[in-house]
């Protein structure tokens, strides 16, 4: 069993493995009182006035206490982060990292701006960790890129992946969880999907091109398509054979 878990962990692509590891270590550290959640949560005032810039990152790493809800979110994080990195972003690690950076920036901006809007500030003030929202963003992006995959919810009913975010949102409401967390993730996910997939088809321009300095951080390997075996290829034209 331990060997199977180790093999599964080693087979994760670099971004997924790094994020899952950081999230688990951070959450365990808080559960053991080695790390205080009060030093991790998103607090715009402390970021701007006390220069505690690490909060812009650490609030995406803490998934609350170690319980069934934590295992549920770890499953979704590992599954959909891995699916995106291995499929849609295969050979494009820098682009995948940029997608997460874009999502984190959008989520943080929404919370900061929302915290200054009358009648909404109280609701946004309660959102101090955005780890679940970033995970939900990945689920949303994956569902948009794989809309026709058939899925089942607890074996009760089936649906296509395009409706997965809405099914999970409905489930969150049924169990009494805050819908704001999921809605934020859907908003960030849709912003990325529109700017990366829809807008370029409409205008021919890509506003979300990954900056060069981020690409320089990752040495992506080219995706190689193996030549099929037992297939005869036509010989080159005679003129090519006799070229000097």
Automatic annotation (TrEMBL):
<keyword id="KW-1133">Transmembrane helix</keyword>
<dbReference type="InterPro" id="IPR007599">
    <property type="entry name" value="DER1"/>
</dbReference>
<comment type="function">
    <text>May be involved in the degradation process of specific misfolded endoplasmic reticulum (ER) luminal proteins.</text>
</comment>
<keyword id="KW-0472">Membrane</keyword>
<protein>
    <recommendedName>
        <fullName>Derlin</fullName>
    </recommendedName>
</protein>
<dbReference type="InterPro" id="IPR035952">
    <property type="entry name" value="Rhomboid-like_sf"/>
</dbReference>
<dbReference type="GO" id="GO:0036503">
    <property type="term" value="P:ERAD pathway"/>
</dbReference>
<feature type="transmembrane region" description="Helical">
    <location>
        <begin position="174"/>
        <end position="195"/>
    </location>
</feature>
<dbReference type="GO" id="GO:0005047">
    <property type="term" value="F:signal recognition particle binding"/>
</dbReference>
<dbReference type="GO" id="GO:0030968">
    <property type="term" value="P:endoplasmic reticulum unfolded protein response"/>
</dbReference>
<keyword id="KW-0812">Transmembrane</keyword>
<comment type="function">
    <text>May be involved in the degradation of misfolded endoplasmic reticulum (ER) luminal proteins.</text>
</comment>
<feature type="transmembrane region" description="Helical">
    <location>
        <begin position="123"/>
        <end position="141"/>
    </location>
</feature>
<feature type="transmembrane region" description="Helical">
    <location>
        <begin position="148"/>
        <end position="168"/>
    </location>
</feature>
<keyword id="KW-0256">Endoplasmic reticulum</keyword>
<feature type="transmembrane region" description="Helical">
    <location>
        <begin position="19"/>
        <end position="42"/>
    </location>
</feature>
<feature type="transmembrane region" description="Helical">
    <location>
        <begin position="96"/>
        <end position="117"/>
    </location>
</feature>
<dbReference type="Pfam" id="PF04511">
    <property type="entry name" value="DER1"/>
</dbReference>
<dbReference type="GO" id="GO:0005789">
    <property type="term" value="C:endoplasmic reticulum membrane"/>
</dbReference>
<comment type="similarity">
    <text>Belongs to the derlin family.</text>
</comment>
């Amino acid at each position: 069993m331990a060997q199977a878990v180790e093999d599964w962990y080693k087979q994760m692509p670099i971004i997924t493995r790094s994020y899952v590891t950081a999230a688990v270590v951070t959450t365990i550290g808080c559960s053991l009182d080695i790390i205080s959640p009060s030093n991790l949560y998103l607090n715009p005032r402390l970021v701007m006035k006390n220069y505690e810039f690490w909060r812009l990152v650490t609030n995406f790493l803490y998934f609350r206490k170690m319980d069934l809800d934590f295992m549920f979110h770890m499953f979704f994080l590992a599954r959909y982060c891995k699916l995106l990195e291995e499929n849609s972003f295969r050979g494009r690690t820098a682009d995948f990292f940029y997608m997460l950076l874009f999502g984190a920036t959008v989520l943080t901006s929404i919370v900061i701006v929302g915290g200054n809007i009358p009648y909404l500030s109280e609701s946004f003030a309660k959102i101090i960790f955005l780890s679940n929202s970033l995970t939900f963003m990945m689920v949303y992006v994956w569902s948009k890129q794989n809309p026709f995959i058939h899925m089942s919810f607890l074996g009760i009913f089936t649906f296509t992946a395009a409706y997965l975010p809405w099914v999970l949102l409905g489930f969150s409401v049924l169990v009494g969880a805050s819908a704001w967390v999921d809605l934020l993730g859907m908003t960030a996910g849709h912003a990325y999907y529109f700017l990366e997939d829809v807008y370029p088809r409409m205008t021919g321009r890509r506003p979300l091109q990954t900056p060069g300095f981020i690409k320089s951080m990752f040495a992506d390997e080219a995706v190689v398509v193996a030549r099929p075996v037992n297939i005869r290829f036509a010989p080159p034209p005679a003129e090519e054979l006799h070229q000097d």
